[in-house]
TrEMBL record:
Name this protein carries in UniProt: Adenine DNA glycosylase
Keyword Hydrolase recorded: yes
Cofactor(s) in the UniProt record: [4Fe-4S] cluster
Residue ranges occupied by any HhH-GPD domain in the UniProt entry: 35-186
């Protein structure tokens, strides 16, 4: 088909030299695809290289401690990806003797592997004719064919999957899938795409109808909830502090944080001090409370915005067993707390 021919020709002249494009090893392809979900290549590349260096095989990753995996992942966000990555490596190592499924249907049975990742691995590693759908692909197809069905709807997912499946090069699905993702990432970009030098511009509906900024269509998500986080950063005279492991389900599951006081609105130093004293958090011990950041740090997540203040609590000693401040960087923490640790300079 002309569409796929134009695409693969463009790809051969414009593709970036990326390490996962030099292999058909499903472990490395899987690793790259999980890392690059909701992550740009320039941000994900150093993480990919770090994971490959530390865990060169699926058995190495399976034998790792989850805390080490989360620490290596720190800064990428969406930590459920890292937890699923580790769980899946164990599944493959123990149940499948280290051998990845070689088809789309069986790849879907792996934890954390959905339609996109299964299609990518199946096509790139095993040449299965299974079209990928990620944000880049949705954008290219929506603009070129003028499709205004919301991409984050069940109808949209089905419609675009069918369209992509019709277009895919049956003789070389691996190259087609990589080409259309690359085209969306570097040519048909979300903002300021290179339409004037696009090989598709004569037939692109969005370009010819001046609808580039309208497509693709996405259903607006619910308004993000606003939360107020107050992290208590204990510092004792013997240079120890307190970190707590977050248990249960949640975005930061199994990561570490400073003790947290959540409030309905921004709280001032006096009110927080009274709350600490009234809740007997320090059991009558004298302490000095200092506000580190004068204005809340706004940390935006997909479903909530965290208005965060760090409070420094100087004490003579800790009532519970603390950790040495010199060891604080050994713990996997959310990027919000990691940034604070670096800016506060505990050294």
């Amino acid at each position: 088909m002309i569409f796929s021919k134009i695409l693969t020709t463009w790809y051969s002249n414009n593709k970036r030299d990326l390490p996962w494009r030099q292999t058909k090893n499903p472990y490395y392809i899987w690793l790259s695809e999980i890392i690059l979900q909701q992550t740009q290549v320039k941000q994900g590349l150093p993480y990919y290289e770090a994971f490959v260096a530390k865990y060169p095989t699926v058995f190495d990753l399976a034998n790792a401690n989850e805390s080490d995996v989360l620490k290596l992942w720190q800064g990428l966000g969406y930590y459920s990806r890292a937890r699923n990555l580790h769980a899946t490596s164990k599944q493959i190592a123990s149940e499948l003797e280290g051998v990845f499924p070689n088809n789309y249907k069986d790849l879907l049975k792996l934890k954390g592997v959905g339609d996109y990742t299964a299609s990518a691995i199946a096509s790139i590693c095993f040449n299965e004719i299974s079209a990928v759908l990620d944000g880049n692909v949705y954008r290219v197809l929506s603009r070129y064919f003028g499709v205004d069905t919301p991409i984050n709807s069940s109808k949209g997912a089905k419609e675009f999957k069918q369209l992509a499946q019709e277009l895919i090069d049956k003789n070389n699905p691996a190259e087609f899938n990589q080409a259309i993702m690359e085209f969306g990432a570097t040519q048909c970009k979300p903002k300021k795409p290179y339409c004037n030098i696009c090989p598709y511009n004569t037939g692109c509906i969005a370009f010819n109808e001046n609808r580039i900024n309208e497509l693709p269509v996405k259903i607006k998500s619910a308004k993000a909830k606003k939360k107020h986080f107050n992290f208590l950063v204990f510092i004792s005279e013997d240079e120890k502090t307190v970190l707590e492991k977050r248990e249960g389900k949640g975005i930061w599951q199994n990561l570490y944080q400073f003790p947290l006081v959540e409030t309905d609105e921004t709280i001032n130093l006096t009110d927080l001090k009274n709350r600490i004293e009234n809740n007997n958090l320090l059991k009558g011990m004298p302490f000095e409370l200092l506000q580190y950041n004068k204005e809340p740090i706004v940390h935006k997540l997909s479903h909530q915005h965290l208005y965060t203040t760090f409070w420094i609590i100087n004490v003579n000693k800790l009532l519970e067993e603390g950790i040495l401040i010199s060891k604080i960087r050994n713990y996997a923490v959310p990027i919000l707390i990691g940034n604070f640790i670096e800016s506060f300079n505990f050294d």
